[in-house]
């Protein structure tokens, strides 16, 4: 189990938002070599809400969400202290099964990254890895996931065509469908619309809002309007710290920290 080092100044204390939390994060620190990228993060993720993470480039947003699914450990120089509990279990406990995170937490990246396969094969990729072979079940997964990602009507007659033939916005929704196919509880999104045109962006934003009925969503975004439009709660990160974490309305209408106000009003970042 990881322990907390106390040989450095404490960051601002952040009171967790009082909702059912799928993640409980306590005093979490992360270093890339000597670079202290996350500093004493205490930030819970509520269930069935959209949580936006905003902040200037390099403040640790991606690192934080990659810690939530233990992807960040793929970087060899990483060192961490503190705890991240997922459904009450510390994900860094040696007894914790990381495969559980792989099936419960899906991730959507900045650039759509479909596999060089058909639309159908992209969606069934995860379920097949988890041993589902029956065609009828896979067909159902494809329809349900593509409907969930608001893409079914656009692709139902071309399921066996290569995914690279889709537009960028459609490819991103396909990546969301691929994520839904593993039936996750959480979807982590790292700037999912930054490579998309305004209409595709709107479709993904509408999708995020409809998905929160069934999923807990964390979205990193540089787009203030997007965070304000689609999220329930927003965290403002700066230099690896959570400066403010509150209801989105509150953050955007009446931030308590001057640095949050300066950032959302475009004075820096
Ligand atoms: N693989 C890595 N190896 C070493 N340092 C890294 C690595 N990834 C990120 N960092 C460093 O950690 C800090 C936080 O980076 P991170 O990518 O989490 O920020 P971010 O807020 O997501 O930035 P952006 O908005 O530009 O994507 C930065 O100083 C960055 O240089």
TrEMBL record:
InterPro entries assigned to the protein according to its UniProt record, in alphabetical order: AAA+_ATPase (IPR003593), ABC_transporter-like_ATP-bd (IPR003439), ABC_transporter-like_CS (IPR017871), P-loop_NTPase (IPR027417), PstB-like (IPR005670)
Membrane topology qualifier: Peripheral membrane protein
GO cellular component: plasma membrane
Molecular functions (GO terms): ATP binding; ATP hydrolysis activity; phosphate transmembrane transporter activity
Subcellular locations according to the entry: Cell inner membrane
Listed Pfam families: ABC_tran
Keywords for this protein: ATP-binding, Cell membrane, Membrane, Nucleotide-binding, Phosphate transport, Translocase, Transport
Domain ABC transporter as annotated: residue spans: 17-264
GO terms, biological process: phosphate ion transmembrane transport
Protein's job: Part of the ABC transporter complex PstSACB involved in phosphate import. Responsible for energy coupling to the transport system.
Protein name: Phosphate import ATP-binding protein PstB
Species of provenance: Virgibacillus oceani
Underlying gene: pstB
């Amino acid at each position: 189990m990881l322990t907390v080092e106390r040989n450095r100044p404490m960051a601002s204390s952040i009171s967790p938002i009082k909702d059912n939390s799928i993640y409980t994060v306590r005093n979490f620190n992360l270093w890339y070599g000597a670079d202290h990228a996350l500093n004493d993060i205490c930030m819970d993720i509520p269930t069935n809400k959209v949580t936006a993470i905003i902040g200037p480039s390099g403040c640790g947003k991606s690192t934080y969400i990659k810690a939530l699914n233990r992807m960040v450990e793929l970087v060899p120089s990483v060192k961490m202290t503190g705890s991240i509990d997922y459904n009450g279990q510390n994900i860094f406990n040696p007894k914790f099964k990381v495969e559980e995170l792989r099936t419960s937490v899906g991730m959507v990246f900045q650039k759509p990254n479909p596999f060089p396969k058909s639309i159908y094969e992209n969606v069934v990729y995860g379920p097949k890895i988890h041993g589902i072979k029956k065609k009828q079940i896979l067909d159902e997964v494809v329809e349900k996931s593509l409907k969930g990602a608001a893409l079914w009507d656009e692709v139902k007659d071309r399921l066996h065509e290569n995914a690279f033939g889709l537009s960028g916005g459609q490819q991103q929704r396909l990546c969301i469908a691929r994520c839904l196919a593993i039936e996750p509880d959480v979807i982590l999104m790292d700037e999912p619309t930054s490579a998309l045109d305004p209409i595709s962006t709107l479709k993904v934003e509408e999708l995020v809002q409809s998905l929160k009925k069934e999923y807990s969503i964390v979205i990193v975004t540089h787009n203030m309007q997007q965070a304000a439009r689609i999220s329930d709660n927003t965290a403002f990160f700066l230099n690896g710290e959570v400066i403010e974490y509150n209801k989105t309305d509150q953050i955007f209408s009446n931030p308590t920290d001057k640095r949050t106000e300066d950032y959302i009003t475009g004075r820096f970042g």
